[in-house]
Amino acid sequence: MSGFDNPFDPDTTLHRAGCSCGRHHSQADHDAAMQNEDARVSRVVESAVMRGLFPDDQLRRNFLRAVGAGTAMAAISTLFPMGAAKALAAEKGKLEKTDLKIGFVPITCATPIIMAGPMGFYEREGLNVSLQKTAGWAVVRDKVQNKEYDASHLLSPMPLAMSLGLGSAKQAVDVATIQNINGQAITLHLKHKDKLNPKDWKGMKFGLPFDYSIHNLLLRYFLAEHGLDPDKDVELRMMPPPDMVANLRA
Fold first, then answer.
1. Is 185 inside a domain boundary?
2. 130, 64, 67: which is closest to 103 by C-alpha?
3. For residue 102, how many other CB atoms are within 10 A of its CB?
4. Whether residue 82 sits in one domain with residue 35
5. pTM
6. Based on the structure, what is the number of domains in the chain?
7. Confidence (pLDDT) at 48
8. Residue 235 is part of a domain; what is its CATH number?
9. Residue 93: partners with Cβ closer than 8 Å, 6 or more residues away
10. In angstroms, how far apart are the furthest CA atoms of the chain?
11. What parts of the chain have a pLDDT lower than 70?
């Protein structure tokens, strides 16, 4: 279910799309949603609330079929101020700052930040954005903390580490949105293609993008789960993401 589907429709499925942006049943639905800003904001708020209440989409659909959309909306509105939330989401105050420097590391995760420029999203919101290509995560972190960047995409553990003062000065960081989840993979050199059992990885070297990355945390957990000490049995090397392929080849 996308943020633009009707969350009070029991026949709405979790994954179904047929428009250019991948969020609507058809291109006609997409065009209609983009033309009606108020309806779009209202639908996004409703979807967010329903997703929070019903993480299991089938449970949501069963509930709506049992009580009906009107009854469900009325009941939920007594527990959650739906109208107030919609009003807050629709309210547009004056932009505090329009000229922004946004940092990014050249990896696929940066695609939304990069493509928002040529697709006109920044301009539509009245923003003049200067994208700052950055070599690695430590540099990004330092520039964010030194206020050289107004914003940047970060690895998910980084805001927590920065707010706790782990590996850098302690500084609170606000997370505005989550760009993606999951997708990490352990990639081995072809010479290790027969070493599918992690217990055979003792003495191997692994490249990681940053100390405070989900890649590091998951790899450490995975190794420990198979009886290896991440700090003694293997070598973990931190390196900028753009250097990963070259180092793997070497």
1. no
2. 130
3. 20
4. yes
5. 0.66
6. 3
7. 84
8. 3.40.190.10
9. none
10. 63
11. 1-5, 12-37
